[in-house]
Every structure is written in C-alpha cells, then in structure tokens.
Amino acid sequence: MNLSAPPDTLASNPTLAVLGFKRQLVYHLHFWAFIAVAPLVMVQWQQSHYLLSAMLILFCANALLVIGFLRLRDTYFLKGRLFPLLAVVCAAYSTHINGHAGLYWAYPAAAALFFLLPLREAIGTNIVFVVIMAVVSFLRFPEADFWRITFSLGLTCLFAMIFAWLVGKLQQELTRLATTDPLTGCLNRSQLADILNSQIQMRERYERVSSLILLDLDYFKTINDQWGHLAGDKVLTELALRLRKRLRESDQLFRIGGEEFMVVLPETRQKDADALAHQLLSSVSARPFLDDIKLTASASVAEVSKGETWSVWLNRADQALYEAKAQGRNQVVNAARPLPAIGQGGRAMPDSAAS
Ligand SMILES: Nc1nc2c(ncn2[C@@H]2O[C@H](COP(=O)(O)OP(=O)(O)OP(=O)(O)O)[C@@H](O)[C@H]2O)c(=O)[nH]1
C-alpha cells in the first residue's frame, strides 16, 4: 500500500485550496499516528495488556481506514470521530495501567484533537479528556504529580486551542481576501465558475431557473480622466453599495472587471431579472455620484438555458451587453436564447424570436 500523502493538485478556487490543506493535515496526522502507535500493539501484547493492545489495534485500523478513504474515495471516514475517542480512551487507560509511560501519550493526543475536530467539539472533548486524566492521575500518582499533570495537560490544551483558533481565523481571512475585490467588497472572479455551475445544476436537476445580469458603467474612462483615479475608485465603491442595497441576500454580486459587475439571481426568470436590471440602471442614473458626477450604465440579462455550460451562459450575456453599448448605452438588452443543439452545435436566436 502506498502510504505517501495524496498528491497536491492546484485547487481551482480558494475554498477548495483550504479544503485541500485540511485533507493533507488529516492525512498526515493519521499516517504518523499509525507509525507511532503500531509498534506499541506488540509492546503492550508482550506485557500481557491485551485490552490496551486491542484498543491500539482498533486505533491503527481506524488510521488505515481514514488514509485509505482519503486516497481512494476522497472522503473522510466517519469524519475523524474515532481518532479522538480512541486516543482519549487509550491514553487514559494506558496511564491507569502503565503510569508515567502511558501519560506521555496524552499530550500529543490533546494537541491532535484541535486539528481533527471542529473547534467547539475539540474544546469540549479536551475538557472531558483533562478531567478524565485528572481523575486517573489522582488515583494513580502522588498529589504533587496530580497537580503537575493536570496543569501541564490543561496548558497544552490551551496553547493548542489558541493556535488552532488563530489558524482557523487566518484561513477565513485568507479565503475572504482571495475571493473578494478589496475596493468594493464584491466577489471576484475566483468563484465565478463554481457559482454559475451550481446554478446550472439547480436548473438541470430541479428545473430551478436562475438568471444573471451584467452591468457596466458608461464612459467610465472619462470619470478617471476628468476627476482622477481616486474619484473613480470612490464611484465604484458607491456603485457597489447602491447595487447591493437593491439586491436580495441570496443574490451574489461580483466585480468581474474594472467597471463591470455581475449579479447572479437564483430562482429568477428572465422577465423578473430584466425588471431588476432596469431598477439597477435607475439607481445608477437617478442620483449623481460624489455629489456631482452624473453616470449611466448599460446592462444585459441572461436566463440559464438547459444544457449550456457556464461559459456559454456568460458569453450570451456578454454579447447582449456589447449590443447595449452599441445601441447607445443606458439600456438593458436581453440575451439571445440558444437554439436547441442540432448535431454538434446550436446557434443563438434573438430573444424576441424566442418568446
Ligand atoms: N478608478 C478606477 N478605474 C478603473 C478601475 N479599473 C478599471 N478602471 C478604468 O475603467 C476604464 C474603463 O474604460 P473603458 O473600458 O474604455 O470603458 P468606458 O470608458 O466605461 O466605456 P464604455 O464601457 O464603452 O461605456 C479605464 O479607464 C480603466 O482604467 C479601478 O479599479 N479604479
């Protein structure tokens, strides 16, 4: 059996990258725990500690299953629940029968729990663990040792908890930075394919139809030229605020280019998306930006069609936006619906002809 780590492949988006790192962490923890514990099965057996030996066999079997499932099925066997349970029970029982020789295993076990379980579960499990170890130490060792063990194990848990909490925060912050545009706080292109694909799946599986709107400011270059880049930035920030104000919580707002935005509207038909696009354009033109910068925008609307890929869907919207610009700007154009595929390729049909 090949026990090397699963291959590192480049993740297609930041969320998948974080999941990939977690997978590697779980894999390595189980792998090295297996290497460390497997010889102890024999040692405990030779010392006639059959129950402990059986528990360690279970621990090793679980480690092998987790490693195997990660490699072969890309899933996390029992979500790692057996590792903490067995580690806690084995460490406590081993301390009870082996004294200090068993106690040493409590420290790596306590730290490992923070990397395998969600933070709250790890804290709860470690509290139970420290209490069990305190009881075992109280029964097994002199009082001075009981205090030393309880406090040193408690401190180990505390340090591991702080570290795991900070790593979790760092992961969240890095994911946020990698998936959002720093100027406007909108989503950036990194998750665009995944989010459009999930809407396509809703369409294919449940007939739940989504639409998207592309919105692009008109003659934005002149704003930069006339008022400066900083004013241009402020206009973009205010635009994102105005758009967000009009959208629902479930809608997703992307900044996909300099002054181009995209809104993904789950469970929204073309007709409703078109009405919303008109309202968004009104929210741009109704009031000047930064008190006296008057602006308009152009938009396109595209409802997802059966069988199309996200790039075809986005491309149809792009073409319609191009038309809105070409037809004089400050207007909404509905994307052409694709014709049903004949043989290899279907051609797009204008919306008016489709309806
Ligand atoms: N201030 C600012 N300007 C940006 C940013 N990103 C892109 N731009 C500018 O946006 C302008 C886009 O210009 P064009 O693509 O010609 O589009 P436009 O002037 O809006 O013209 P139409 O789209 O054809 O109506 C360029 O001048 C870019 O420099 C940004 O983050 N901040």
TrEMBL record:
Cofactor(s) listed: Mg(2+)
CDD domains on file: GGDEF
Catalytic activity: 2 GTP = 3',3'-c-di-GMP + 2 diphosphate
MF terms (GO), sorted A to Z: diguanylate cyclase activity
UniProt keyword Signal present: no
Membrane spanning stretches: 25-45, 51-70, 82-107, 113-139, 146-167
EC number(s) given by UniProt: 2.7.7.65
NCBIfam families registered for this protein in UniProt: GGDEF
Protein name: diguanylate cyclase
Originating organism: Marinobacter subterrani
